[in-house]
Amino acid sequence: MTDATELVKLSAAEMAAKIRNKEVSSRELTEAHLAVIEKAEPSIDAFLKVSAETALAEADAFDAKNAKGETEGLPELAGVPIAIKDMIVTKGIETTAASKILEGWVPPYDATVIEKIKAAGMPILGKTNLDEFAQGSSTEHSAFKTTKNPWNTEHVPGGSGGGSASAVGAFEAPIALGTDTGGSIRQPGAFTGTVGVKPTYGGVSRFGAIAMASSLDQIGPVSRTVLDAALLHEVIGGHDRRDSTSIPREVPPVVAAAREGQKMDLKGVKVGLIKELSGEGFQPDVEARFNESVKLLEDMGAEVVEISCPHFPAALGAYYIIMPSEVSSNLARYDGMRYGLRVMPPAGVPQTAANMMAYTREAGFGDEVKRRIILGTYALSAGYYDAWYGSAQKVRTLIIEDFAKAFEQVDVLVSPTAPTTAFKFGEKTADPITMYLGDVATIPANMGGVPAMSIPAGLSADGLPVGFQFFAPQMQDEKMYKPAAALEAALEGKWGGPVWNSLKTPWLDEA
After folding, report:
1. Hey, which residues are catalytic here?
2. What mean pLDDT comes out for the span 460-468?
3. Which of 71, 269, 352, 360 has its CA 20 to 30 A from that of 441?
């Protein structure tokens, strides 16, 4: 094992400690990850754009400040490199949302979370792949490439944020940012053995996140440990006046909660098992790992009770009306007029603005995006609005009420993150409904605006990761960090180390 390989296998918190102690520089960490990216990408394809020169320049700038003692007061993760889902705007770095309609677009501004990342001196390694405009559950719908699962490259990494999850899982990056509209951080986390967090809606600014479904989208951390996720959450969270949905409150004490959880004492914590998110449709291995994890929570002193959330089964159907409706509205801005792709009508076709828009969208949008635009436009059309969109919003209110009633009885709710482990490429692309059913356990959190987190809960019989999901009340994100960190520690004790100790990484041996 090379020194570089040893470095990239550290947690982000451990890397940050080495930077503070002057044992390693930000440039050394960045170079080590860039070396892994170079070797891993032919197998993994997690990145759409690697910004090596920019990352090294940012690392050098941080190291120069650090040498002068000018980094006091910066977040704990200062100097640690990071990857960014290509749904988040980055000044000077091409941002495409994995769509041909934005190919070549270089933003003139940064998203708020990117401003915070840069202010913390964290080098940006590059932009990661996703399903086009974050619309998919497998990262098979990118216009440019198909990201592989590092545990088995014949299997999907989940979606839409498969690029960020695979990059972190394959040690190409210690941490990453993703976006979660219906589980796009947590489901890839479950599939790749990484930690994925969807903060409370409005707890992290969405300014500069390319909109998919504005009432559901949320930026959040991707990491290999719960503490790393908490540290990144602390960097990116907080109020932003440029985001009208941003909550004017401080970031919850997530880091303190994660560190408290590492003590593995859950006395006084009440955990609710969601009755509706188990049983039929859930893979036996997934349920087995889930039940084993619940037993570990009990062993650490948590009180576990069953909770019914009767409207959760309706969340999937309501989501797939609300989300496409918002997609059809948000994606109307890609008209070939102002930026992005422009395709003029061929000779013989009237050269009108309407025809230019039609040809641009036909060439620029992929099949899944077109499908959702059509669904959403239908749901919002005259005569159908109340029957479809209005009814779905009523179901959403019932889901919010389910969460409110549940959290009157327990501190956190738990479920498997996904009904299955990672499926093979092509297995579900011909049947979109089957693909959509994979989001059944993650969607309620987005519909209710509550925070949720997926952590690795072990491996299935075929060696693929399984995810365990926590839900917490709105703006009380710390309530899920404590039991999640405790369970992570207990599981590592059971396995004899982190789950990724079992991951075969031939690209690391070459790096």
Report:
1. 85, 160, 184
2. 96
3. 269
